[in-house]
Please model this.
Amino acid sequence: MTVFTPANIAALVIAASFAAGLNVYATVFTLGLLTRMHWVALPTGLEALGDWWVIGASGTMLALEFVADKIPGFDLIWNGLHTFIRVPVAALLAYQASSHLSTQMQLLATLAGAGIAFVAHGSKTALRAAVTPSPEPLTNIALSTGEDVTAVGVTWLATQHPWVAASIAAAFTLFAILAARWLLRVLRRIWKRAVHPFDSTPQPAPGAK
Model:
């Protein structure tokens, strides 16, 4: 069974925050069930996740999200609203997980948890917005299912091999940031062309100085 030292708590925060940004209910439900079944001993501040009320509530919302997140169009509304749920809950999980560390470390963990969850949530929402206009629903369903599996898998892995899970989450987070920068550049170019459709700045002749 994993012993959650300060270093392992840091890894848990990174991995669980990323998972929560994708599907916060899957993250809470998985952590709660693992704790309740005594398959893992979470840091002291997260023991409440093993309460049957928490497991039941998160399981119910997980089932609801499993359906809602796969409906093209409605998934954008759902994900938009969950900006105000996934990020705060990830911050709360990080705060509780680091409850017995120093005040400075707890604050840092909380901010990191919120930031990682925001990046994961933002990339998920942006990707969904890109594929939603497609007339076929299979892409949405495949993406949503993949996100659910990833959230559960990373959460479970965080309790068994924290740094492996943290490395995976960090790699995905970095990729999401780079992808967001690329997408922003593309959107800026499209915006400039839309605003100035007849802008034909003369180009210098070949060889001209």
